[in-house]
Amino acid sequence: MPTPTAHEPPVLYERRGPLAYATLNRPRYRNAQNSAMTYALDAAFYQAAADSEVKVIVLAGAGEHFCAGHDIGTPERDAHLPFERRAGLWWDHCGKQGAESRFARESEVYLGMCRRWRELPKPVVASVQGACVAGGLMLAWICDLIVASEDAFFADPVVRMGIPGVEYFAHPWVMPPRIAKEFLYTGDRMPARRAYEVGMVNRVVERAELAERTEELALRIAGMPRLGLALTKRAVNQAEDLQGMHTGMDSVFALHHLAHAHNAETAADPLGGMDVSAMKKAST
Ligand code: ZN
Predict the structure, then answer these.
(1) From ligand 1's centre to the CA of 240, what distance in Å?
(2) Which residues surround ligand 1, an ion (CB under 5 A)?
(3) What is the DSSP secondary-structure string of 251-275?
(4) Residue 40 pLDDT > 60, yes or no?
(5) How far is the CA of 270 from the centre of ligand 1 (A)?
(6) What are the sequence ranges of the domains in the chain?
(7) What is the pLDDT of residue 284?
(8) Cα within 13 Å of Cα(217), Cβ side
(9) pTM over 0.85
(10) Where does the pLDDT of residue 91 fall: very low under 50, low under 70, confident under 90, or very high at 90 and above?
């Protein structure tokens, strides 16, 4: 595999038969999600949604890891750049202070985007290997199904920053609440097998077979009628929201920003002074 450069697209898009593949493509940074990747992913998802030939979307990560989280320290970190207003919820964060910047940005690019992606009118299957950490969880959790390889692990270590979990707070809906507390309180890695046991992932497969088994499942789903799939997806999502997911996330998002504000007021920065190496050290 050639060494990717900064000029390579942060998300690769490919259609194969009834499947569209969106592949996170910053493997040298364990697919850390910067804004360029966020907007490229948004474009890929909506290209697939608009393409009548596409029945099912597969979200995968290039390289050894699915996604190590939001970009908090690579040379291409771009949180300071203006964002394109695609979720359309807030003004651009650039040149603003405090919550006018942070709340606006995270509402738009984290919570707002993830919610829209969860509502895509076609099934999305995540194909997860290696690290699926923090912001990476958000990308896996907006998918309808998750196929994980034996080496995959899931973790949300952001409580170490004094913050109650990532922005898309699906934790107590994708796993039982007591398990969610353990997951958050410890920040420990949850191995793929454990994630399967608690119902967070659909299948655990050999690493070498991940792509093939994901495709197999996606193709089976692609045999169903398009409208039937779209309505079924809506039905289950509505059920989750009736179980409080949508309003629960809103309430936790406020707590999340209380924590950012507390950090900004009392610590070195809104992340509680935790940089990439400190987080990496804490999560291994
Ligand atoms: Zn945040």
Answers:
(1) 23
(2) 106
(3) HHHHHHHHHHHHHHHHSSSTTTT--
(4) yes
(5) 8
(6) 11-282
(7) 56
(8) 22
(9) yes
(10) confident
